[in-house]
Specification:
The structure holds three protein chains of three kinds. Chain A is mainly α. Chain A is built from 14 helices and no strands. Chain B has a two-stranded antiparallel ribbon with strand order 1-2. In chain B, helix 1 runs antiparallel to helix 4 and helix 10 packs across helix 11. Classes of the chains: A mainly alpha, B mainly alpha, C mainly alpha.
Chain lengths: 324, 492, 127
């Protein structure tokens, strides 16, 4: 991994750099699996290696492939990095050794999560019980972060009207797509399975690795694949801009309303035990609904972001076409 | 309902934000946002009352007790800050719709309000939570919305300023994350009160020292403490004017809060001030910030830049108060946080008015404006006097308490330096006042009318607050002193 | 010796972090900065996750008969942090696209030069 990082530093071809960054993400994901962090690996693979690479490639496509001769200040950077790195290494000397079972982190808060969560929440995936219930408010914040990014990208990139020369754009896209006939056919058959897998991950997240985030990203990936191969306008006919924006808001509101209902039923915000007569059933219900909210917002925001990037590209192409 | 106030403080604007996406017309969205912000303000007042009478409030989210669940913990310090943030937010929102009509394209206006509310909830969340990782999450909410809001500015330099802020801000946030991670590794907990209990046993380790350093550096980046302030002047200058009015009065206060909270309540005074030469370092940085930033402010052509550099200097004053490490010093710092919010809020709101009518905030374009927009320029005069520290304004109150705190410690030279800083402020304020009143309007320039009521009213609300709290200091001083004492009393 | 064995994992992660940090500061190309930011953040995640690993334990999903599990809390925190990271990346890239449209270049020094030039031109106008 150090090699990949150093290569990213040296190489000037941005396409290669982005690919390397994607590989870095994938290697991290496998590292996470080795560290028993399966949920994290899943998320890192889909988000870090998948969506991230995709967006970066789109940006490179719009901004140029090579890095200019750098006139940066390597000396200053090296000094700063040496100080920071040195400080961190200094800090490692009193740390508990890697993997040791009697470190503070494993003996204070964690035992309850590990050994009592089945009793208290009834969900085998401990990461899900911590994420969705014990620390459910953090996850609410996280959904809000994703929503914020979606709105931010909209604020930055959305174009008020479709480019004037719709026909020209369609023509460009159509000719490109003729060349990719095999891909189009293959993808058309794969999409339903991918969507189904997304739903599986969404609802099976209590029992195995998975949950709202991963499911949302996979769902969005399917839609994005369709948009890439069949054209943005085709995808937009199915998933219109106002609709997907509404969905993203709905996800956050769904999550928030679970919390509000908890308050109305006498518990504190996001206390699921009061959502049903039996606390465990309440926990299950709460987790189900909020994960749904998460999946909804994540999927719609990823779609919004990709559509915004693509639409901006079409806007740029239309303007370059000489109308301005 | 009352028992849920701590979480409602954050939830109200947070849930209002996506709800805005369902409404479509900008005016409706504006009213809705204003409603949400006012609710948040009322909640903060109620919370402050509760805390002053009943003491620290604790709220368990999800029904799980800390440290397994996330806790919201309200004491005098954060209730005070929450009041400042929600109050400024509401006053600024009053003028928002009128101002953004001219600065933001119509289709983006609803998005503006959503981002504004998200920013508000982010800041309130940082301030009210009692969980260290929760701080990080809400820090990112407020940062991401800030980057987006700044990038909405008309000038293309807004985009570049926003990008620089994004890079520096994310480095800062990642440093904070590293700090939290190291703290977690050594203690096994993320709850702030629990950390305070468990840190003393591991305080001697190098890991904790490293944790503290990373955390503080990250916070100082957000605080714009010299020399980590580089993102601030351009971000404030090129953002939409109403955005600057909001952020100038609030975002640095939140970072200052984090500094205080982690130093006093979590790491504890004995650790923070003895392990590392924090006192000296902050004193030096603060003073450098005051003098260098004030000097740079004098040479700026754009009033927004003048006031932005002035803000960097004011952060310097706050840090000087912090570095005294006495209750009096901390009281001065807290007072200045309150007063600076009022001062810069008023000044930048006046700039909102000027941008609305004149379309530029360059000093040269303001020649003779004193006659055409008398009320607006008068507001700048009062705000400027406050910045200098003239008696009867809030600026005087903060400087007074700072000087007294310095003298109490026997540092007469520091008191002198503080007064010297005020002289620099006189110079840059005078430049603006002189141009507005004593220079003739540029030939051929269209005469402008006074600012519309929608902007003028909030401006003068803030200006009057400057004067009112400068004369009747009971409220601000009582809370600041009380909060400072409890911070010193709790931490050993 | 045991100390080096026990700690070298952390040291490698720190090296990764620093390479990422270096890329952010040293390079002028905006997309590279964002990628550096990504590498920096991902390395911090790796650090957190290594803190949570327990020797000989398995993934924190309840199975009959297994007693030793790795710590689920760092996993939760990093899941959140990954999402925050992508949110920041998306915004950063969107900004870069707009900057390219407005300035025509996406290199830090070139943009700064254009801004300085514009300020000089404006001052000339005012004379």
């Amino acid at each position: 991994m150090v090699g990949i990082a150093l290569a990213v530093n040296q190489i000037k071809d941005m396409f290669a750099v982005v690919m390397l960054a994607g590989i870095y993400g994938l290697v991290s994901a496998s590292f996470f699996v080795a560290m028993d962090a399966v949920d994290v690996a899943f998320t890192e693979a889909s988000v870090g290696a998948g969506i991230s690479t995709l967006l970066m490639l789109t940006t490179v496509a719009m901004t140029g492939r090579t890095e200019h001769e750098a006139s940066h200040k390597p000396l200053l950077a090296l000094i700063l990095v040496a100080i920071t790195g040195g400080l961190l290494i200094y800090g490692t000397f009193d740390m508990p050794y890697f993997g040791s079972a009697d470190a503070a982190v494993h003996n204070h808060v964690a035992p309850r999560y590990i050994y009592d969560s089945m009793k208290e929440i009834g969900v085998p995936n401990m990461v899900t019980s911590v994420l969705a219930s014990y620390r459910g408010f953090d996850t609410f914040g996280e959904v809000t972060v994703i929503f914020t990014a979606g709105i931010g990208v909209l604020a930055l990139l959305s174009v008020a009207q479709r480019p004037k020369d719709d026909a020209a754009i369609e023509a460009i896209n159509d000719s490109m797509h003729e060349k990719h006939l095999i891909l189009r056919v293959a993808i058309k058959t794969m999409i339903p399975f991918i969507l189904l897998y997304a739903f599986y991950v969404q609802f099976h997240g209590d029992y195995g690795p998975g949950g709202g985030f991963q499911a949302g990203v996979i769902f969005a990936a399917a839609i994005i694949m369709y948009a890439m191969l069949f054209g943005l306008s085709a995808a937009r006919r199915v998933i219109t801009q106002p609709f997907v924006q509404l969905l993203s808001a709905l996800g956050v509101l769904l999550y928030g309303s679970v919390g509000v209902v908890s308050m109305i039923n006498g518990g504190s915000f996001l206390d699921y035990s009061v959502l049903a007569a039996d606390p465990i059933a309440g926990q299950h219900l709460g987790i189900l609904i909020i994960e749904l909210g998460v999946g909804l917002t994540v999927a719609s925001v990823m779609i919004i972001i990709f559509f915004s990037f693509s639409a901006r590209r079409e806007y740029q192409q239309a303007n370059k076409g000489g109308s301005l | 309902m009352l028992v849920h106030l701590p979480i409602l403080q954050v939830i109200v604007p947070l849930i209002a934000a996506p709800a805005c996406l369902i409404l479509r017309r900008p005016k409706l969205v504006w009213l809705f946002a204003l409603f949400a912000s006012s609710l948040a303000f009322i909640i903060s007042i109620l919370l402050l009352q509760q805390v002053m009478t009943a003491g620290t409030i604790s709220y368990e989210l999800g029904g799980w007790s800390p440290p397994w669940g996330i806790e919201y913990r309200i004491d005098k310090l954060n209730a005070f800050i929450a009041l400042i943030i929600s109050g400024i937010s509401t006053v600024v929102l009053l003028a928002a719709q009128t101002s953004i009509e001219k600065e933001i394209p119509k289709d983006k206006q609803p998005l503006f309000y959503i981002l504004y509310l998200l920013s508000l909830s982010g800041m309130l969340g940082i301030v009210t939570t009692g969980d260290a990782f929760n701080v990080f999450v809400f820090l990112e909410i407020s940062s991401l919305s800030a980057y987006s809001l700044i990038a909405l500015g008309k000038d293309r330099r807004a985009l570049w300023a926003s990008f620089q802020y994004l890079i520096m801000g994310t480095i800062g946030a990642t440093f904070i994350l590293i700090g939290i991670g190291l703290m977690y590794q050594m203690t096994g907990t993320l709850n702030m009160a629990d950390l305070a209990v468990r840190l003393p046993e591991v305080a001697e380790t190098r890991t904790i020292t490293t944790a503290y350093v990373f955390f503080i550096v990250g916070v100082c980046l957000k605080l714009a403490l010299f020399p980590l302030h580089f993102w601030l002047p351009n971000a404030y200058a090129y953002a939409p004017s109403i955005v600057t009015a909001f952020f100038a009065a609030t975002s640095t206060k939140v970072a200052a809060y984090l500094l205080i909270r982690f130093t006093f309540s979590i790491f504890g005074i004995s650790f923070s001030f003895t392990t590392l030469p924090i006192e000296t370092m902050f004193l030096v940085m603060g003073l450098l910030g005051i003098f260098i930033a004030s000097t740079v402010a004098i040479y700026q052509d754009n009033i927004k830049h003048v006031f932005a550099y002035s803000s960097v200097a004011q952060v310097g004053y706050m840090i000087v108060g912090f570095s005294l490490s006495t209750p009096a010093g901390l009281t001065a710092m807290l007072l200045h946080m309150f007063n600076h919010a009022l001062m810069k809020g008023a000044l930048f709101m006046a700039l909102v008015a000027i941008m609305y009518r004149v379309g530029s905030s360059k000093i040269n374009d303001l020649q003779g404006l004193g006659r055409q927009m008398p009320l607006t320029v008068a507001a700048i005069v009062v705000g400027g006097l406050s910045l200098i520290g003239v008696p009867l304004t809030v600026g005087f109150v903060s400087k007074w308490y700072l000087v007294v705190a310095a003298i109490e410690k026997g540092w007469w030279w520091l008191a002198g330096l503080v007064l010297l800083g005020s002289l620099l402020a006189v110079i840059y304020v005078w430049r603006i006042v002189e141009t507005a009143y004593f220079k003739a309007p540029i030939l051929g320039q269209q005469p402008v009318k006074e600012a519309p009521m929608a902007i003028l009213v909030p401006v003068w609300l803030l200006v009057s607050a400057n004067v009112y709290f400068g004369i009747d200091t009971r409220f601000s001083v009582e809370i600041a002193a009380s909060a400072a004492k409890s911070l010193f009393g709790v931490a050993q | 010796m045991t100390m080096i064995l026990g700690l070298y994992n952390y040291w490698v992660v720190i090296v990764l972090m620093m390479i990422g940090f270096y890329i952010i500061i040293a390079h002028g190309h905006l997309i590279k900065k964002i990628i550096g930011l990504n590498i920096f953040q991902t390395s911090v995640f790796i650090f957190y996750i290594s803190v949570g690993k327990v020797e000989g334990a398995t993934a924190p999903i309840w199975q009959e008969g297994i007693i030793l599990y790795s710590n689920p809390l760092p996993h939760v925190l990093i899941l959140t942090a990954i999402v925050v990271g992508i949110a920041t990346t998306a915004l950063g890239l969107a900004l870069i696209i707009r900057i390219k449209e407005a300035y025509g270049v996406i290199d830090e020094d070139e943009i700064q030069a254009m801004d300085n030039q514009a300020m000089v031109n404006q001052d000339k106008e005012h004379q």
